[in-house]
Design brief:
This protein is of the alpha+beta class. It is built from 16 helices and 31 strands. The protein has three domains: about 5-45 and about 65-235, Phosphoenolpyruvate Carboxykinase, domain 1; about 240-305 and about 395-595, Phosphoenolpyruvate Carboxykinase, domain 3, CATH 3.90.228; about 305-385, Phosphoenolpyruvate Carboxykinase, domain 2 (Beta Complex). Strands 1, 4, 5, 6, 7, 8, 9 and 10 form an eight-stranded mixed beta sheet that branches. Strands 14-12-13-25-29-26 form a six-stranded mixed beta sheet, with helices on both faces. The chain starts with 5 loop residues before the first helix and ends with a helix.
Length: about 600
């Protein structure tokens, strides 16, 4: 990491961006109060009814600044091939010259906030530090919830610890080059947007957007894109994974990391309420895990984040009651609807919509309206500490040992409810070939698949083929008994009538129970062409209204459809050329032979 001093970097950035003043943030409650009052005053935040939602606020973004902008997200490695075919690449010198021209004077009339933050418990050996410079007080509030903002980080850096410089501007100066002041807007942003990562120098430059991971630079930018590059150099893994502790009725603990692309039930699993008596799931993290070998030769993980940045639509009492309890207070909502009582609402929160709302754009809304009340990517931002299922070790500097790794996508066909990898190489192959169907498949024909290897497609900071090799190297560097077992799960398989075969949600505990029994060796598995499958008699199905026919279908392996899928996988692998690990090509050939 860079050895540039924080003071020099702040001074250089101020000279470039020309703010009115500089404020050093400390993450205190006083700071929160001052900034929320400032943003309520200028209309960026709406204070919610304190009797219904204490210390909580609603923000409405510009209509053009509502989501992650993957096409404006770049990996600026020195060589294009090091970014790989799945990333957008720009030459780092070219990109920095462009960004300097955009950042020049971008903070005129604004305050520059200097936000020292830690990803991970500050005293953890796995923690990494960053300094975000931003001109958005909304970002400062969000970083307080999502990271550990503290002056202690500056102390660590001054004592010699490495750090990541993360520069952000909404790109909307309030004073132009000739000194004319322009009116402030409730959501400043710029039509031109760049989120640039420099993996060789561990820098992040983000311009033009004030939204989510585009602006909260500790999240995907540092935790995954820069984090994955750091992990590769330093021998650890930065992963788009949830972390949970599964506890059996006998009190035995199993720690599970799981990678799921979006819309595949990730947050629901992180906050699972088991339906099986005596079982317990506690939440360590819902989005990111940093995993490293410990001194005992086992993989140990921390959640580098301190908060949830959750998608609101679809989150409700039925789907995720734990999330609903978590956001009862002290929450920052973005682009959801406002009720007449001063509370929030979105599609899926309740079975029926209120008769009148103010939608996410600020317009009147009724159930007869043609548009959704909340933006489909509307969010809630809240501290992990408020989660009722939070694990006692969520903030432990030592982290937790990983017993199992799960991969899953949204597949209506082909992929069984659960399958165990034969070994580590096969497990990496499973992760490398995660996909979700974008269109429904019919009569065994494989649908259009969106590949999202390890759920890291938008987040890997270097060549994806090298990333797979790094996973192989980390696992094969451990003894066989210390490697976590790898499983693939699929809650979304459908029957010919188009209905889900598995009830999902809390009933997924039944799959986790079988996995735990595989981990402690108390149950066998049967070999199949694609991996090891459970015997139906070994799944705890008591009280579950799933027919034998549906269970047979949920584990059926259609060899013809799978062979079609291997052809698609081969075409997908070919884009990586000679950088594709030989083990991945070997696993594909094994799969073809098994199916034939």
């Amino acid at each position: 990491m860079t050895k540039l001093t924080v003071e020099n970097w702040v001074a250089e950035t101020a000279k470039l961006t020309m703010p009115d003043e500089i404020v050093w943030c400390d993450g205190s409650q006083r700071e929160w109060t001052e900034l929320t009052e400032l943003l309520v005053e200028n209309g960026t935040l709406i204070r919610l009814n304190p009797d219904l939602r204490p210390n909580s606020f609603l923000a409405r973004t510009d209509k053009a600044d509502v989501a992650r902008v993957e096409d404006r997200t770049f990996i600026c490695s020195a060589h294009e091939e090091d970014a790989g075919p799945t990333n957008n690449w720009r030459d780092p010198l070219w990109m920095k010259n462009l960004l300097r021209s955009l950042f020049k004077g971008s903070m005129r009339g604004r305050t520059m906030y200097v936000v020292p933050f830690s990803m991970g418990p500050i005293d953890s050996p796995q923690a990494r530090f960053g300094i975000e410079i931003t001109d958005s007080p909304y970002v400062v509030l969000s970083m307080k919830l999502m990271t550990r903002v503290s002056s202690e980080v500056l102390t660590k850096i001054k004592s010699g610890d490495d750090w990541v410089p993360a520069l952000h501007s909404v790109g909307a100066p309030l004073i132009d080059e000739v000194g004319v002041r322009t009116p402030e807007t409730t959501w400043p942003c710029n039509v031109e947007k760049y989120i640039a990562h420099f993996p060789e120098t561990n820098e992040i430059w983000s311009f033009g957007s004030g939204y989510g991971g585009n602006a909260l630079l500790g999240k995907k930018c540092m935790s995954l894109r820069i984090g994955s590059a750091l992990g590769r150099r330093e021998g650890w893994l930065a992963e788009h994974m949830l972390l949970v502790r599964l506890t059996s009725p006998a009190g035995k603990d199993f720690h599970i990391a799981a990678a799921f692309p979006s819309a595949c039930g990730k947050t629901n699993l992180a906050m699972l309420r088991p339906t099986l008596p005596g079982w317990k799931v506690s939440t360590i993290g819902d989005d990111i895990a940093w995993i490293a070998p410990d001194t005992n030769g086992k993989l140990r993980a921390i959640n580098p984040e301190a908060g949830f940045f959750g998608v609101a639509p679809g989150t409700g009492i039925k789907t995720n009651p734990v999330a609903i309890e978590t956001i009862r207070a002290n929450t920052l909502f973005t682009n959801v609807a406002l009720t007449d009582e001063g509370d929030v609402w979105w599609e899926g929160l309740t079975n029926e919509a209120p008769e009148h709302l103010i939608d996410w754009t600020g317009a009147d809304w009724t159930p007869k309206s043609d548009t959704p009340a909340a933006h489909p990517n509307s969010r809630f931002t809240v501290s992990l500490e408020q989660c009722p299922t939070i694990d006692a070790a969520w903030n432990s500097p030592e982290g937790v040992e990983i017993d199992a790794i799960l991969f899953g996508g949204r597949r209506a066909t082909n992929v069984p409810l659960v399958v165990e990898a034969r070994d580590w190489e096969h497990g990496v192959f499973m992760g490398a070939t995660i996909s979700s169907e974008q269109t429904a498949a019919a009569e065994g024909v494989v649908g259009t698949l969106r590949r999202d290897p390890f759920a890291m497609l938008p987040f890997c900071g270097y060549n994806m083929a090298d990333y797979w090799q790094h996973w192989l190297d980390v696992g094969l560097g451990l003894s066989a008994e210390n490697r976590p077992q790898v499983f693939q799960v699929n809650w979304f398989r459908k029957g010919q009538d188009g209905k889900f075969l598995w009830p999902g949600f809390g009933e997924n505990t039944r799959v986790l129970e079988w996995i735990s029994r595989r981990l402690d060796g108390s149950v066998a598995a049967s070999a199949s062409p694609i991996g090891n499958l459970p015997a139906l008699s070994d799944l705890n199905l008591e009280g579950l209204t799933v027919t034998t026919e549906d269970l047979d279908e949920i584990f059926r392996i259609d060899r013809s459809a799978w062979l079609q899928e291997t052809n698609m996988t081969e075409a997908y692998f070919n884009q990586f050329g000679e950088r594709l690990p030989a083990a991945m090509r070997g696993q594909l050939e094994i799969l073809k032979a098994n199916l034939a």
